[in-house]
Amino acid sequence: MLTESQFREGFQCLAQFGLTFDAWVYHPQLAEVAALAAEFPQTTIVLNHFGSPILGGPNAARTSEVFAEWRKAMSSLAAHDNIQVKLGALPVRHSEKSHGTKAQPLSSEEIAAAWRPFFEVCVEQFGTRRCMFESNFPVQKRWCSYAVLWNACKRLAAGASADEKSALFSGTAIRAYRLPTG
Description:
Elements: H1 5-16, E1 21-23, H2 30-39, E2 45-47, H3 63-78, E3 83-87, H4 108-126, E4 131-133, H5 146-156, H6 162-176
Parallel strand pairs: 1-2, 2-3, 3-4
Helix pairs in contact: 2-3, 3-4, 4-5
């Protein structure tokens, strides 16, 4: 859809109105986002959900290959200053379930550990001034609580400076969406 002429015709109006475009695509589509960013450098594009690497289904046995593909695509995206990245909503699954019992909710430690490799790539490629934490509630509540999610984000940002934390938790979103600050 991002390559269709009618879509691009409408997309060109976003910059003149100072609007931001949120892109939720899967990692095989990241090159289309890069092409869009290159053609419309005045339009802010926010990439949702870490760029949605497809880690399940037919890719479940290809985790390291998918991570490498995703990382390469994210590196290409980072070359476009008009792209920001939302860090969140990357599905995390328990590695094993007990038969006949419901899986326990995920802890903030489990989420942070699962997200850390993706978080580190995004911060390395885009910097904290182009990354922001996100929640995907209410959808995400099926595998963790709102408080657990934000505690996971705090764990991921634990080694960041005060300025970096400010960017991750609010500053990048304020700039990307042109929100009032007070």
